[in-house]
Amino acid sequence: MNADLFDHAGAYVKSGNIKQAIDQAELKLRGLDETYFHPILGASLLHQSEELVSWITSFYQEVSRKRPARALYFEMYGFDINTDQWYIDGFAYETVGTIEDVDWLADYELDMATSQPFVLTGFELMQEAFEAYMDEEEPDELEEARDIAELLVILRLQELLAQAHQLAKARRLDWGTIVLLATAHDYDMILESK
To answer: Domain residues of the chain, as ranges?
Structure first.
């Protein structure tokens, strides 16, 4: 992982400008020689927005019967090494910590987590690309393209969750009024949608 690349994009995400982060990352990838990571250019997960809204709504209703949910956190499984199926899990919290110190996200109750993951579709070529990369004999030549593709997968996930949150707000769904956080497992670049 290229920390500088993620830090640069993270500043855009923190300011709520995911589109700018995506544009910058795609520009960098376009500047590299063609690789099997390039099909991520222009790819999107937004076709799953409605399905995601329904999934989150069901989850929120389920956990709200147990305790008040004041924050929702969605995390994509370790996609770069688990290439068979990409998905996200959800967690609800009674108390909200800060985005600067996200240790509180690890303190979730099992009954406040999703029982079924939300399966992401449309990035199957990227799943194949990450699988192929693990099998490369000399992956160093592809490392920069891989790092950018890794960033773009996370940004596209965050774009999808931000759009779902906006739809929830527009439809006056209860979970549209609380904070939503999103990233991939073990990544510090976290979307905070309020």
So the answer is: 3-193
